[in-house]
Amino acid sequence: MYYILVTLAAVAGMEFVAWFAHKYIMHGVLWSWHESHHKPHENEGFFEKNDLFFIVFAFPSMSCYILGSATDYRFLFFVGVGISIYGLIYFLIHDVYIHRRFKWFNQLESKYSKAVVRAHGTHHAKQTKDNTESFGLLVINSKFFKSNKERRAMEENNKIYIEK
Length: 164
Known about the structure:
This protein has 164 residues and is mainly α. The chain has helices at 2-29, 31-38, 52-70, 75-98, 111-124, 148-163. The longest helix is centred in the first third of the chain and has 28 residues, at 2-29. The chain starts with a helix and ends with a helix. The relative contact order is 0.12.
């Protein structure tokens, strides 16, 4: 039971690690890699520079597998499992579902799946590293659960309120 909790905690914790890395590393010092993900790709092939992050993010998981197997700190193995599970979830939601790099399943109709797509679309609305929002993947701001029409009306009302 302990190792199941460690694994689940690692999966949950990775959302916040991914948010931090996205906001401060990908949109910071490594923008030169991540920028390829924000620009339209026309005839540039299947891969983009941003895919290098998959390799970078594999190292913590791999390290945890090795350390957890080779030392008395067995829990680290399950931290590695949690990181890998988050990586799989991220790949399936971000690359398969949102960006449709693989056509494995169709648009889902749940409120949550629509909110994920709206949040990510808002993030990609800017092709620059600054002034973007919505850096997480699974934890979504409640405003994205509203339809685009409802959100635009809400934003318009906020502008009117602020201007008065």
